[in-house]
Amino acid sequence: MTTTLIDLSVDGRKIAGLAAGGDAAGTPLIVALHGGGYGSGYFDVPGHSLLALGEATGFPVFALDRPGYGGSDSLPRGRATFGDSAEVLDAAIGALWTDHGEGRPGVVLLSHSIGSAIAVHVAARRPHWPLLGISLHGVGDRSPEHIISAWRAIPTNGPVELPPEQRRALLYGPAGTIDVEVVEAAKASVEPIPLEEMLEIVGDWPENLAELASKVVVPVQYTLAEYDGLWVVDSSRVATFAGYFTSAPWIEAGLQPGAGHNLDHHRLSRALHLRQLAFAWECAARATAADEYDDRLTGQERHT
Question: Which residues form the AB hydrolase-1 domain (predicted)?
Fold first, then answer.
């Protein structure tokens, strides 16, 4: 696999990340947004790399460092909200589309955890570039009370580093769902989490989710892992979350057995990534078919 570094300048702000090129005809641009406490390398763990699989199947994949992570500039103090991040990423993805979108049907966002919350914000903005769909996992609408209490009790305004044992307990499923060496390899992409993100994901996010989701007018794929330690997990929560997207033309939603929060690093990661890419392909194919149908209708009108 050939991975290249992304270095974008958008309105004077740097957005960095990783890219892997696939060139199959008809494939959309894939933009991946990582969660809290990881950079773009979250999607490039050896043996579980979304970028490698995307390249192998012909999809161009761009994993962006969200503002404040990796090589990307931080947002100003007091502006590190999901909505502000979405505004910056909206512009960055627009720049990617300008540079790499020629001949492609559009963009599909694949996202994890806090990145999924921000992906909903991006979609709710109804960006000017052609967003075809959003795939969300590692996010929910209700956190366990002990998580809410723990996040709110953190006595600092700076970035937070979760101890390795807490990271293992909250973000990964039980033995048998993961390989120990993969958890170790994933540590290379670990970064501190801005406390603002931790507080927003258990505060404003669940309060604002229904309103935001109602503004999303593209297809949605949603997956919640059985052993996700950051969210209340059961089939009713999956159905409730999917039900917020009242304007989406179609929705795929399911509970993933045998995996934890960092589903991309579990033994079932390949299954997740293949489903995500299949979803992206279907979004692109349906959009292309709809455009061709509209073109035929327009042509008929010109000749009547």
Answer: 30-222
DSSP 8-state class, residue 64: E
Distance separating alpha carbons of residues 114 and 111, to the nearest angstrom: 8
Average pLDDT along the chain? 94
Mean pLDDT of 284-299: 71
State both tokens at 291: 């455009």
What pTM, to 2 d.p., does this model score? 0.95
Q: Is the pLDDT of residue 81 over 60?
A: yes
Does residue 294 surpass a pLDDT of 80?
A: no
Let me know: does 223 contact 134? Beta carbons within 8 Å.
no
If you write DSSP's letter for every residue of 48-77 in order, what string do you get?
A: S-HHHHHHHTT--EEEEPPTTSTTSPPPPT
Paired strand residues for 4: 19
The set of residues, in sequence order, having a beta carbon less than 8 Å from that of 69 and lying 6+ positions away, is 34, 38, 39, 40, 191
Tell me which residue has tokens 């390249």. 55
pLDDT-based confidence at 158, cuts 50/70/90?
confident
CATH of the domain at 39: 3.40.50.1820
- Give the residue-averaged pLDDT of 262-273: 98
What are the residues whose beta carbons fall under 8 Å from the beta carbon of 214, sequence distance 6 or more?
244, 245, 246, 247
Contacts of 163 (CB under 8 A, 6+ apart): none
Question: How many other CB atoms sit within 10 Å of the CB of residue 229?
Answer: 21
What is the span of the domain harbouring residue 127?
3-302
Q: How many domains does the chain have?
A: 1
Query: In Å, what is the CA distance from 120 to each residue of 69, 129, 164, 200?
Result: 19, 15, 29, 14
